[in-house]
Amino acid sequence: MIDLTLIGIGSGSPGHLTREGAAAMAVADLILIPQKAQKSDLADLRRALCAEVLPSPPPLASFPMPQRQVAQGYRQGVEDWHDAIAAEWEAVIRAHEAVRPALLVWGDPSLYDSTLRIAARVGQRLPLRLRVIPGITAVQALCAAHAIPLNDVAQPVTITTGRQLRDHGWPSCVDRVVVMLDADPAFQTLDPDGIDIWWGAYLGLPQQMLMQGPLANTGPRIVKARADARAAHGWIMDTYLLARCGAMWCSAA
């Protein structure tokens, strides 16, 4: 039986790693490191985290992250992509004869992350026992960085993706929306009148960036700042919260 542990690591900052997560890393006999094309910084962050947290890190095994194809449509592209990643995991685990492998997951494995679905595919090929250790989500890190509550008093909040916001507009029955996985800021498709935004990138890392204010004038500044940051670092991870004015903490209230 192979004991695979998925460990949430927040943004990759050592401060975001729980004691439970650090303990799980210490007893792993292999840590898998995804290597994305032209995004070596992400793999380097994982390696640096291991070096800082663990006196004697276990072997670190890099594997190439397959690229998602879109020719067959979004859904099928994701399914094929997950199959390809699962095959890479299996190959690395077999090659190292690992019985306690671990994988470090950005944010938390349970929120807008595909690691659990990929692990299920690996479990169809290998005798697998899965353990999940939660991590700090981008949503938590964003609200903490801006020192704001996620929800208004006794009110709901919706967490969605840039694709959903772009295709379907503002979700019904809520005044607050958190948007994740947004490669091309979908807030540009909204009428900005009466909306405030709290935005953050590289949350918890030394290069952290924060902006807040009315969407009408803050949105264009965010678009430029994230483009400049992507060009400088080769990657960007960001998220944002939108609130209709009149809600608590809205700058126009």
Summarize the structure.
This protein has 253 residues and is an alpha/beta fold. The protein has seven helices and ten strands. 36% of the residues lie in helices and 23% in strands.
Description:
- This protein has 253 residues and is α/β, with parallel strands linked by helices.
- It has two domains: 2-133, Cobalt-precorrin-4 Transmethylase, domain 1; 138-244, Methyltransferase, Cobalt-precorrin-4 Transmethylase, Domain 2, CATH 3.30.950.10.
- 36% of the residues lie in helices and 23% in strands.
- The chain has helices at 19-27, 40-53, 74-96, 115-123, 138-146, 162-168, 215-233; strands spanning 2-8, 30-35, 60-64, 101-105, 128-133, 158-161, 176-180, 195-201, 209-214, 238-244.
- The strands form two sheets. It has a five-stranded parallel beta sheet with strand order 3-2-4-1-5, sandwiched between helices.
- α3 crosses α4.
- The longest helix has 23 residues, at 74-96.
- The radius of gyration is 19 Å and the shape is globular.
Question: What is the CATH C-level name of the largest domain?
Answer: Alpha Beta
Please report the total strand number as a whole number: 10
Can you tell me the CATH architecture of the largest domain? Answer: 3-Layer(aba) Sandwich
The total number of structural domains is 2
Largest beta-sheet details: 5 strands, parallel
Radius of gyration: 19 Å
Order of helices and strands: EHEHEHEHEHEHEEEHE
- Overall geometry comes to globular
Main-sheet strand order equals 3-2-4-1-5
What's the CATH topology name of the largest domain?
Cobalt-precorrin-4 Transmethylase, domain 1
Mean pLDDT: 92
Supply the helix-strand structural class. alpha/beta
In the predicted model, the low-confidence regions spanning at least 5 consecutive residues are none
Provide the helix percentage. Answer: 25-40%
**What gap, in angstroms, lies between the N and C termini?**
57 Å
- Give the percentage of residues in beta strands: 15-25%
Oligomer: single chain
GO molecular function, one term: precorrin-6A synthase (deacetylating) activity
Pathway: Cofactor biosynthesis; adenosylcobalamin biosynthesis
Protein name: Precorrin-6A synthase [deacetylating]
InterPro entries: 4pyrrol_Mease (IPR000878), 4pyrrol_Methylase_sf (IPR035996), 4pyrrole_Mease_sub1 (IPR014777), 4pyrrole_Mease_sub2 (IPR014776), CobF (IPR012797)
